[in-house]
Amino acid sequence: MSDYRAAIAPPDETPDAARPAQDLVLVTTPAMRARRHPWAIVGVWAWQAALALVASWPAGSLARAAYGGDPRGDAVLWDAGGHALLDALWHDSHGVSVVMRAGGFALAAGIVVGLVPAAALMFAMAYATRERGRAGAARSLAAAVGAFGAFAVLLVAFGVLQGIVVGAGAGVARWAEHMAHPSMGEAHAELLEGAVGLLFVVGASVLGVVHDMARAAVVRFQVSGLRGFALGARAFRSAPVRLWWSWAWRTGAAAAPVAAAAAAASAMGGRGGAALALLALLHQAVVASRIALRASWLGVPLRTVDVALARPSA
Description:
By secondary structure, this protein is mostly helical. It has a domain at about 1-145. About 75% of the residues lie in helices and about 0% in strands. The protein is built from 10 helices and 2 strands. It has a two-stranded antiparallel ribbon with strand order 1-2. Helix 2 (about 40-65) runs antiparallel to helix 5 and helix 2 runs antiparallel to helix 10. The chain is globular. It starts with a helix and ends in a 5-residue tail after the last helix.
């Protein structure tokens, strides 16, 4: 606790306009790190676990209804060839469609409502109480609810921009392949198509980084979504390569446990008992590691906007 208290900026150095609540003050810029807030990461994990349970419950109920009387239960769905799975999809198509709609609704709701725990995690990293203690779940969530509108504006704005970039990339890549096909041949033209498409994917990822920079500006300076957009873009220009790479290596690292868990699931097949319990624990460990890496990344935009923008004018 003493190290944490030493990282809190004195209350009289924190401008009122930059506080989510009058009883919160900023920590020093170097202290805005995820590793100082393990319980905030646990909170985000709990939210995602609850959302996953809600989204998967209808599918589990359908499997129990269809195969509850089988001695092996729904393990038959894992049999080689997938005959039981195809039979279930064919004969229970109405139930599957209901499950798909429920899952889609849960996913959409999770994206929107999930802005609150994401913002709360950032507020927990950036602020502390006037008594130089941790902001805590209640204060962080309250501040996150206050920033929900700005975060929603950013979600829509950057979602549209990324959609345009990806769509344009698909069109340009296809056009490049079509133009190069007569002179380069099919194989080389397809390689060119992939390379052009990859450039646009990188462009979309850059927008994702700027999106997080804008979120950090909203948290740090308590501005609107549009103002956060401008401030985030300005802060990104201060170190574009460093920021993109900081995001990219964490994203790549987050894919490693997913691949390991997928290999383990494939090896275990449809076994139950201890194997199923181990697989569930492995899955949750993957989720927790991805959340921790994401939180580690979110500390970077918070620290960057604090240095690059200082105190912007209103």
